[in-house]
Structure formats: structure tokens, C-alpha cells
Specification:
The structure holds 3 protein chains of 3 kinds. Chain A has helices at residues 3-20, 23-44, 101-104; strands spanning 51-56, 62-65, 70-75, 80-86, 89-94, 114-117, 122-127, 135-137. By secondary structure, chain A is of the alpha+beta class. Chain A folds into 2 domains: 3-44; 51-131, Sandwich (mini-chromosome maintenance (MCM) complex, domain 2). In chain A, β1 and β2 form a beta hairpin. Chain A is elongated. Chain B has one domain: Orthogonal Bundle (Arp2/3 complex 21 kDa subunit ARPC3). In chain B, α4 (81-100) runs antiparallel to α5 (110-133). By secondary structure, chain C is of the alpha+beta class. Chain C has 2 domains: 23-64 and 192-345, ApbE-like domains (T-fold), CATH 3.10.520.10; 65-171, ApbE-like superfamily (T-fold, Orthogonal Bundle), CATH 1.10.3980. Helix content of chain C is 36%, strand content 25%. In chain C, the strands form 4 sheets. Chain C has a 9-stranded mixed sheet. Chain C is globular, with a radius of gyration of 23 Å. The chains are: A alpha+beta, B mainly alpha, C alpha+beta. Chains in contact: A-B, A-C, B-C. Chain A binds chain B through residues 17, 20-25, 28-29, 32-33, 35-36, 39-40, 42-43, 112-114, 116, 123, 125-126, and chain B through 103-104, 106-112, 115-116, 119, 134, 136-141, 143-144, 147-148, 150-151, 154-155, 158-159, 162.
């Protein structure tokens, strides 16, 4: 059997499947894809945040400015993680977890972006002003 | 004094057999590694869809809920956050299926049902996750990823279910 | 049937989770700055009506008290410069002037609204500052004939001054006074919870739901807040800073906060923040009294704060070090790691 025949068979099978799809279905599919694009645009269009919120399950959450260059130790369930704040971004540098997913995530800087170290129970997220206070005195 | 005996009906048998398959699929899926936590193909959904089309909604609902409860007990996640994610996803999914099950045949096929069901699963899970598990708006950053996988696996489930419906699982009596 | 019930439960659940506390917000541009009113827990209609009342009163005050645009005050200043007397049939302005005399003398004239001419000389009597350092002799001329609130005489409804250099500039008082007016209007109209921010000077009425209102304190050198602090019901907060109205000349910063004794902008601090507890004129105090803490030399600041009865204050000095009262230090939430700074707690 030549490869051409084999390919033909696969094409036929695929066509068989596609035949199942009806008019109304394409409407559903298109709507679904629209939802996907919408959700993508929402995430991408978030502005950069000014503040970082650190949450660990031991204490109340704390908010810090991203406008500084500093390394902080955050105590979690397994031990101390280290985060680095610089140039309006933040990331995990060290963590006592095994898989180090939190470190591999890299830098975040847009509002609502979050890095979670599940084993150490620490969450760092970018927040807008409204999380820290109601208005500004200047 | 007469003892009341619970006599299983034919429907009960149907539910049990289908649920059993769904449970097995669920448990297998639990042990399969996935690169992104939370993204699962939802192959048990194929059974739910099959049940819905082949039988009726209430049978499918029973199968779905039994699947959620029993597979979580087997796997050891009963009453854990994962369980509630699963449960709420299943509930929203069923609610939507109930609403759309009567969709006109010439225009809608099982593909729509499957996509709507998987969409419902995602929505239900996100609601619970946002309320109880990660009470942050940041969780919505994961939405695109989950929606894409819902689309892909929804289509996949529809095609597989279609094959099953055509063959009506000849080996078994349903 | 069961699933109809389920549907109902799901919908009720979702609806109850989406209830949000109602905050009405209205922003506008008055007093040459942004004014922001937040009203909590009232209907939109009532909030809109009352915030309109407040903004109308602010517009009235803007036209009444403006330091250099056409206003009652500038008319008075013109009369005095021409050597004549000025008649007012307005009891409010008399009260305001009395208040300013009082605050000026208590603050050893570091808060001195009588130096309008000096402020104008430095180019701050226009929307965008002049960008020019005045000549030494111009400054000395004004200093030689230094003006204070004592130079303004009140005789029943007549205002006059023997010192033709006297020029009243209420720029360091008017916003605080407006806060007190807003507080009255809100109280008279039965609004229990609101937050009024006039160009950064803030008064808190009631609470934000079940928590106090919280304000961020602007970092004098960065676009973010350096700290945040709770503003309990009735408290006001005011800051004098060198980072909003200023100009640079040869790498030196000249701000609108002129030291009446030297004739030059005070440069020992970047910002001075004070919080005043509930009082009839707490708004005015939070505005006026931040000036002495900013302007006075470093060694005098602490004793001045004690003298003025200010328990909550924070001064960011010119080099970035921080002088903070112990009471303020207890409640403040730093948003910055303060490793390199020296923080002195008084």
C-alpha cells in the first residue's frame, strides 16, 4: 500500500468526523473561540501594577511598592522563600519547594499576574492601588 | 410486618454500569500526569454525553454525580478542594445540558452538547476556585488556557462519543 | 423537577456572591487641583445630589478665596496695595482671617499667609510656575518689610493694613477649610460615611463599611505611595511637599513652600505629613500646620510639633531620612523596604 493510500484513508476518516458538525455547531464553536479571544485580550491588556501583594497562609497579606530594588525573605510553610523586586517587576529567586515551578515562572509585573508556591504556601501577585488604600494623600 | 426491599430497577442497573465506566476513566485520568495542573481531558465526559443521548437527562445526571462522588472516594480526594471543583463543574455542566438538550437536531449535533458541557465544567470550576481556592482576580489569567483545552477536548469527546453511539457498545446490553 | 430546584439554588448562590458595597465617586477640577469625593452606603441619587452641593460650595470658595485670580481676597489685596481700606459685609471672611491670624501666631509665623508678594515673586502665582530664580535684591526688598498676619487690622467689617506689602495668600489654608465645609454639608444632609480628597488633603467621615478609610501617602520622589495609614472617623490628613509645585534651576529644586524668614523656598525637607484628630477645624489645621513642619529647620521641627499639639506626623527630610512621631509609627504601614533610610521616632 503506498503512503498515498494511507493518507487518503486518514483524510476520509477526518472528513467523516467533520461531517458530524452541523450549522448550529459551527455557531457554538465560533462563539467559543470568541470567548477565548476575549479572555486572552483581557489578560494581555492589564496595565502594569505599582504594588505587590505577598500572601502566606500564616499571616495577613502585606503590600509593597514595586518602585524599589530589594530582595525580601518570605516565610512559608516549608521555610523561607526569597523574592526579588526590581524595576517594577518581581520574581521568586529561591524557594524550599522541590519542583521550583515558582522560580521558573520568572518575572511578573501586570495587575492580576500571580506566582504561587503551593508547597510553601506563598502567593505573590501584582495589585493596583485600590487594594492598598482608598485614596492618596499628597 | 413486611420488610421493604429495595429492588433495583433497570434504570438503576444502567446507571450503575455506565457510572462504573465513567469512574474507571476518571480514576485513570487522575493518575495521568498533566503539564498544567487542572487541565484534564475529561474523558469521563464522553460517557455522560453518551448517556444523555442514548437514554435521558436524569440518567446522565445520576451517572455524572455518582462518578464525581465515587471516583473522589477511590482516589482519596473526597471533600477536598479538588472534589468540590469537580462537583461544581459537573453541576454547572449538567444545568447547561438540561437547558440545551432539546436543541433542534438538524442544526445541532453532539458537538454542541459536548462543547457546552465542557464550557460548563470550566465555568463551574472557576467559580469555586475564585470563591474558595484562590480568592484573587488573578485566577482569571488562567481562563484562556482552560477555555482552549475545553474546546479541544470538547471536540474530541464529541467525536469519540459519536463513534460509541454508532456502535452502541455492542458488547454490552446498553 | 429536582433540577429546577438545583438551578434555583445555583442562581441564588451566584447572585448573593455578587453583592457589592455601594461607593459613589465624583471627581472634579477645583482649586486648581483634582477634588475627589467618595460616598459610602447611600443611594446613587442622594450621593449625586450631595456631592453636587459640595462641589458647588467648593466653586464658591474657589471664587471667594483664590490667591491670584479674581476673588474677594485678591480684591482685598489690591485695595491694600493701593493703600485703601476694604469693606466686607461677610462674616465668613472675617472668621477665616481670624483663624489664619491665630494659626500663624501659634506656629511662630512659619505658617504665614501674609507673604503673597514673596510667593508671587518666585513665580508661583500662576498655573505653571515661572522657572526663574528672582534677583537677590528683589527678595531682600520684601524681606526688609516683612509681612505677617499681625499687619492686617480688622475693624468691625473693615480690613486694612499699614504695610502695603501685605498680600494674603490662603493657598495653604483654603483646601483644609473646604474640607471642614464639606464635613458640615455631609453632616447636615445625613451622610454618615464619606471620604473627601481636595488636592491630596483628606478628611474621613465615618468608615468604609466595617473598616476605616485607608489613605496612601505619596512618595515624594516616586510615582507610588511610600506608606498607607488608616484614617479613623473624623480625622484629616495633610501633606506639604516639594514635588508638585516646584521648578528646577541648575539642578536645584525650588518649591512653592517659601520660608518667610529667609525669603527662599525651604529645602530641608521633601515632604511633611500630619494627621489631625476630629475637631471643628481639623481640615484647616491639617492643611495649615503641615507648613511649619516642612519649613522649620530640622532642629526645630520636633519642638514645633509638640507646641502645636501634633501627635501624628512624618517628615521626609531632604536626604530621604524620615522623622516620624511614635504614634504615627505605630499605625503606619510601610509600602517600601526602609533599609537604607534612617527613621527617627519621636
Amino acid at each position: 500500500m503506498s503512503p498515498y493510500n494511507g493518507l487518503n484513508k486518514i483524510m476520509k476518516k477526518i472528513l467523516q468526523y467533520i461531517k458530524i458538525i452541523k450549522l448550529g455547531d459551527t455557531f457554538v464553536i465560533v462563539t467559543f473561540m470568541g470567548l477565548i479571544f476575549w479572555s486572552v485580550s483581557q489578560s494581555w491588556n492589564m496595565p502594569s501594577g505599582q504594588y505587590l501583594k505577598i500572601e502566606n497562609n500564616q499571616e495577613d497579606s502585606k503590600v509593597f511598592s514595586l518602585n524599589q530594588t530589594v530582595n525580601k525573605q518570605v516565610i512559608g510553610f516549608l521555610g523561607s522563600s526569597e523574592i526579588s523586586i526590581a524595576e517594577g517587576k518581581v520574581r521568586f529567586v529561591k524557594s524550599p519547594c522541590t519542583k521550583k515551578y515558582c522560580i521558573h515562572h520568572g518575572w511578573i509585573n501586570k495587575i492580576n499576574q500571580t506566582i504561587v508556591c503551593l508547597p510553601n504556601q506563598i502567593t505573590i501577585s501584582i495589585v493596583g492601588d485600590s487594594e492598598s488604600y482608598d485614596t492618596v494623600n499628597y | 410486618m413486611t420488610q421493604s426491599i429495595i429492588k433495583p430497577t433497570k434504570k438503576d442497573h444502567t446507571i450503575a454500569k455506565l457510572a462504573a465506566i465513567a469512574i474507571v476513566l476518571s480514576v485513570i485520568e487522575f493518575f495521568l500526569p498533566s503539564p498544567i495542573p487542572g487541565i484534564k481531558p475529561g474523558i469521563a465526559n464522553i460517557i455522560i454525553l453518551y448517556t444523555l443521548v442514548r437514554f435521558d437527562f436524569s440518567t446522565a445526571a445520576w451517572v455524572s454525580l455518582v462518578r464525581v462522588f465515587v471516583s473522589s472516594i477511590i482516589v482519596g480526594s473526597f471533600l477536598s478542594p479538588t472534589f468540590f471543583l469537580s462537583l461544581f463543574g459537573a453541576i454547572v455542566s449538567l444545568v447547561l445540558l438540561y437547558a440545551v438538550q432539546k436543541l433542534p437536531k438538524p442544526y445541532f449535533s453532539i458537538v454542541s452538547l459536548s462543547l457546552i458541557a465542557s464550557f460548563g465544567h470550566i465555568v463551574g470550576q472557576f467559580i469555586i476556585a475564585r470563591l474558595w481556592i484562590i480568592p484573587h482576580d488573578s485566577i482569571f489569567n488562567l481562563l484562556p488556557l482552560f477555555l482552549i483545552s475545553a474546546l479541544i477536548f470538547g471536540l474530541f469527546s464529541a467525536f469519540v462519543c459519536n463513534i460509541l453511539l454508532k456502535h452502541k457498545l455492542k458488547k454490552h446490553t446498553f | 423537577m429536582r433540577f429546577h430546584k438545583l438551578l434555583l439554588i445555583v442562581i441564588l448562590f451566584l447572585v448573593s456572591c455578587s453583592q457589592k458595597a455601594p461607593i459613589y465617586e465624583h471627581k472634579d477640577f477645583i482649586f486648581g487641583t483634582i477634588v475627589d469625593i467618595k460616598i459610602y452606603g447611600e443611594t446613587e441619587e442622594k450621593s449625586e445630589n450631595i456631592s453636587n452641593l459640595i462641589f458647588n460650595d467648593f466653586k464658591r470658595l474657589h471664587n471667594y478665596l483664590h490667591p491670584w485670580e479674581k476673588s474677594l481676597i485678591s480684591s482685598m489685596n489690591n485695595a491694600i496695595a493701593a493703600g485703601s481700606v476694604f469693606n466686607v459685609d461677610d462674616e465668613e471672611i472675617i472668621r477665616i482671617i481670624q483663624d489664619n491670624k491665630n494659626l500663624a501666631s501659634k506656629s511662630e509665623n512659619y505658617f504665614n499667609p501674609a507673604i503673597g508678594k514673596l510667593i508671587a515673586l518666585w513665580g508661583f502665582h500662576q498655573e505653571l510656575p515661572n522657572q526663574m530664580v528672582p534677583k537677590a535684591h528683589q527678595i531682600n526688598e520684601l524681606l526688609a518689610n516683612v509681612t505677617t498676619m499681625d499687619d492686617l487690622k480688622i475693624n468691625q467689617s473693615t480690613l486694612s493694613s499699614a504695610n502695603r506689602n501685605f498680600q494674603l495668600d490662603l493657598g495653604g489654608y483654603a483646601k483644609g477649610y473646604a474640607l471642614d465645609r464639606a464635613k458640615k454639608i455631609l453632616a447636615n444632609n445625613g451622610v454618615a460615611n464619606a471620604l473627601v480628597n481636595i488636592g491630596g488633603n483628606i478628611i474621613a467621615i465615618g468608615m468604609h463599611g466595617d473598616r476605616s478609610w485607608i489613605v496612601g501617602i505619596q512618595h515624594p520622589r516616586k510615582p507610588s505611595a511610600i506608606a498607607s495609614i488608616q484614617l479613623p472617623p473624623g480625622w484629616s490628613i495633610g501633606t506639604s511637599g516639594d514635588y508638585q509645585r516646584y521648578f528646577m534651576d541648575h539642578d536645584k529644586r525650588y518649591s512653592h513652600l517659601i520660608n518667610p524668614r529667609t525669603g527662599f523656598p525651604a529645602d530641608n525637607s521633601q515632604s511633611a505629613t500630619i494627621m489631625i484628630p476630629p475637631a471643628n477645624n481639623s481640615g484647616a489645621l491639617s492643611d495649615a500646620y503641615s507648613k511649619p513642619l516642612f519649613i522649620a529647620p530640622e532642629i526645630e521641627k520636633l519642638q514645633l510639633a509638640d507646641k502645636l499639639g501634633i501627635d501624628f506626623f512624618m517628615v521626609v527630610l531632604a536626604n530621604g531620612d524620615i522623622l516620624i512621631s511614635s504614634k504615627m509609627n505605630e499605625s503606619i504601614q510601610w509600602l517600601e523596604q526602609n533599609n537604607e533610610k534612617n527613621i527617627t521616632v519621636h
